[in-house]
Amino acid sequence: MPTVDDDLPSGLDPEEFSAWVFGAANPTAGRGLELTPFHGLRFAPEVAGDLSTVTSPPYDLIDEQEVARLLASDGHNIVRLILPPTAAEGATTLNGWRATGALTSDHEPSLYVYEAATGAGPLQRGLIGALGLRSEADGIVLPHENVYPGPVRNRLALMEETDANLEPIFLVYEGGGDTAEIIDQVAETPPLQEFLADDGLIHRLWRIEDHPRISADLRDRQALIADGHHRYATYRALQARRHAAGHGPGPWDYGLALLVDSTRYPPHLGAIHRVLPALAPQVALQRAKDAFTITPYDTLPEALQALSTAAGPAFLLGGDGLHLLTDPDPVRLARTMPPGHSDRWRRLDTAVLDHLLIDDLWQIPENEHSVEVVHDDPAAAIERARRTSGTAVVLNPLQVEDVLAVAGEGERVPRKSTSFGPKPRTGMVLRLLTP
Predict the structure, then answer these.
(1) Which pLDDT does position 164 carry in this prediction?
(2) Are 172 and 267 in contact, with CB atoms under 8 Å apart?
(3) Which of 139, 233, 348, 358 is least crowded, fewest Cβ atoms below 10 Å from its Cβ?
(4) CA distances from 231 to 56, 87, 198, 228, 386 (A)
(5) Cα–Cα dist 1/15, whole Å
(6) Burial class (CB in 10 A: 0-12, 13-18, 19+), 200
(7) Name one Pfam family in it (predicted).
């Protein structure tokens, strides 16, 4: 039996690997944007227990402490599937939960309306379905971030073993047509599932069967991947593998996704901060002086305020004191930036971080082991750096218009540049590749 590495290219950097996996030939070209019904696999509360204790955030937002807490909270928590000790153990758990009735399949193929809300109303409302996979060149499903081969291999092994899409990716599109009207009508009826999670949001799910109007409404639209680039890359890698093996059209031409109308529910765009455990703060500061103006601060609120109002690329270093880096040396910056990118891309904070700071000044290999990430929370990033005697880099969030413009020009921002939210709750509905 082939290993997961046999048909994935090796020796490629993230940009090269992303170009390969997102740009692979598309056997389903010409169909436009597709979101099709499927037999949803859902937790049965009477067997699995309270849905608030068996669902979780997406796999890449859960650190080791949170994994331990979720594992202790409930024997059916979805983290046992999305972050198992091995892919084979994940498959064994999934099969066991299906056998006991903790997970059951809906009899009719459906689309699902998903809502995340506060007491004041919905923050996000969208449609979960099987997304037709498209090559980046088709201009239908647009990635905006590069991906690393390692996480794709990891997700691919799990997807192959479980024969399932375990959590949806998150896409946004400019809508306002029939789909929006149908979603609102369905959301006025009693939901299939409703619970208050530990994220403080009320999560709801409905089934929907009005497919033809939705299909016609979506066909000519374009969607941007907001969250889940590594999972979408895994969908594409699995699709390429199955077609290369001669399997032809099948469920591997689709992947589980949440599609949200951004004109009605604009996503929040947060920053993804970095932690470099192997980089001592004083070393980081000393090397940064070669290309940046450095200003110390006494308190985190004061430093964050200065970061938010800085003109041009700026970074807050934490771990041993707080130091704001501004005004990168333009000559050195121009020398370190890779060729072939637009001026807009070259001005992105994350591009400057990756190429001038991490690669050139600090000479740290930029991968998922040497550079950790923390979504949205500057204090958590700094605390993690202190625990490891490393360095935290706190960033401003990118601007939505910059992300859209870069993606629209066929470029991708550096890996882990954006944290779109709110992210869909994992465990609301799963998709089996073999129903």
Answers:
(1) 98
(2) yes
(3) 139
(4) 17, 15, 24, 5, 31
(5) 29
(6) exposed
(7) DUF1015
pLDDT one-digit tens code per residue, 22-75: 988 887 777 899 999 999 999 999 999 999 999 999 998 888 888 888 888 879
Residue type, 337: M
As a whole number of Å, the CA-based R_g of the chain is 22
pLDDT digits (tens, 9 = 90+) for 126-168: 999 999 999 998 989 999 988 888 899 999 999 999 999 999 9
- The 10s digit of each residue's pLDDT in 250-277 is 999 999 999 999 999 988 899 999 999 9
Q: How many CA atoms lie within 13 A of 417 on its CB side?
A: 28
Sign of CA dihedral 94, 97, 103, 108: positive
User: How far is it, in rounded angstroms, from Cα 322 to Cα 319?
Assistant: 7
- Band of pLDDT at residue 2, cut at 50, 70 and 90: very low
First to last CA, the chain: 23
Q: Is 370 helix (H, G, I), strand (E, B) or coil?
A: coil
Could you give the CA distance from residue 82 to residue 72 in angstroms, rounded to a whole number? 15
Q: Are 314 and 324 in contact (CB under 8 A)?
A: yes
For residue 245, give the amino acid letter. A
- Sign of CA pseudo-dihedral 351, 353, 358, 361: positive
User: How crowded is residue 53: how many other Cβ atoms within 10 Å of its Cβ?
Assistant: 17
For the entire predicted model, the pTM comes to 0.85
